[in-house]
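Q: Second attempt. The first request was missing the SMILES, so the protein and adenosine-5'-triphosphate are both included now.
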Amino acid sequence: MTQALLAENLCKKYGRGDTSVTALDHVTISLNTGEVVALLGPSGAGKSTLLTALGLIRPPDSGRIVIDGTTVFDNGYRTDIRSFRRNNLGFVFQKANLLPFLSALENVQLPMQLDDVSGGKSRKRAMELLSQFDMAERQGFKPSELSGGQQQRVAIARALANHPKLLFADEPTAALDSVMGRKVMEMMKRVAHDFQTSVLVVTHDTRAIDVFDRILRMEDGRIHES
Ligand SMILES: Nc1ncnc2c1ncn2[C@@H]1O[C@H](COP(=O)(O)OP(=O)(O)OP(=O)(O)O)[C@@H](O)[C@H]1O
Ligand SMILES: [Mg+2]
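A: Got both inputs this time. The predicted holo structure:
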């Protein structure tokens, strides 16, 4: 299996002196291509900090991050991270954060349009993605006309629009009931396997934990495989 992500010895402290908090304590993590991995752990363990570091949103203090063979961080950014992020990474958060004045279809098309993909092509791909998340019939609906689970499925479809190598999701099902939470996780896994996208999901929802290929636990800024 090929490695989509390798991060070694990531360290991150917030603040300084007596009141500083160690959020990442020499974290090493790897994801294989197409693997869907859960990251569990108590509040304050450092899960979101790890996701924002791996997602090139907020750099760690030190360590190394290799994505799809490219060293993107080695005690500092090594590449144009904004374009790298746009071309290779997708994000999903607890709230769908869809643009309210756009339809479901237009929301999924948006990242492709920003990337200069033609209207016809982006429409076709957006429809395919919406179908895979069982949302094709709701393509014309505005976010306010969709349930929380439906909005989140559109948000995941949007995050996958540009064929990212990696998808990072921070508690994507926290606002959903357990049946919908499980459904969303299952759909996300199926599409990730189809597209060979690796997914790292922070979750507190252990009811759907069997959906994942692998489970990591985090505590006090350290990671344990389980
Ligand atoms: N911007 C910040 N400034 C200062 N400290 C922070 C900041 N963000 C996080 N921390 C601290 O770093 C530690 C890890 O926080 P983080 O948000 O990564 O935890 P988490 O595992 O995502 O928790 P939760 O499950 O509650 O979301 C915590 O002790 C937190 O208080
Ligand atoms: Mg968090």
